Amino acid sequence: MQTSITNSATRYGWGAILLHWLIALIFIGQFGLGFVMVRLTSQRTAFELIQLHKSFGFLLLGLVLLRIAWRLGNATPALPRSVGTLERRAAPLAHLALYAFQLALPLSGWALVSVSMLEIPSLPFNLFVMPNLPLAESDGAESFWAAAHWYLAYAGMTLVALHVAAALRHHFQLRDGVLTRMVTPSSNSE
């Protein structure tokens, strides 16, 4: 049985699975990195971690855009029949919310560095200078975007925690195969 890069009617393919777990790893890692970098006393280390945080933020933005395009271009596996009506209605809304936060967070970070009065360039993985968004620099705008980025991060992580809890519930309590669809890829015979 050969696995498939695309989704089937019952399972996700390698494309969706790899994007899902890579985005999850970066999204959760970004929260931890952001939490640590703002609490450091060493300005040099903080600066290096901020540049790394921005690098992964731009990577996350690109991967999420790719993931959304992938989802739009592939079939979405149907939920098992055992999944109730409420969950069937909530699942697409939860996924939409996850995508929204995964877009809003890096965009709000990009806006934050774009309006900063410090004018420190963003150097994704030290490969090139990422241009700023066309936003006016000001202390007020910087405060706004810093707060927005902070609130979005905590709300996003809360949503991720709920998503993980739901997946674990499906796997360990309901035993309905919802989680395994995002671990074991579809096959060409499905």
From TrEMBL:
Protein name: Cytochrome b
Domain of life: Bacteria
GO CC list: plasma membrane
Family label: Belongs to the cytochrome b561 family.
GO biological process, alphabetically ordered: respiratory electron transport chain
Classification via Pfam families: Ni_hydr_CYTB
Subcellular location: Cell membrane
Cofactors demanded by this protein: heme b
Entry annotated with the keyword Transport: yes
Keywords tagged on the record: Cell membrane, Electron transport, Heme, Iron, Membrane, Metal-binding, Transmembrane, Transmembrane helix, Transport
Organism expressing this protein natively: Mesorhizobium ciceri
Membrane topology according to the record: Multi-pass membrane protein
GO molecular function: electron transfer activity; heme binding; metal ion binding
TM stretches of this protein: 12-36, 56-73, 93-113, 148-168
Record-annotated Cytochrome b561 bacterial/Ni-hydrogenase domain positions: 11-184
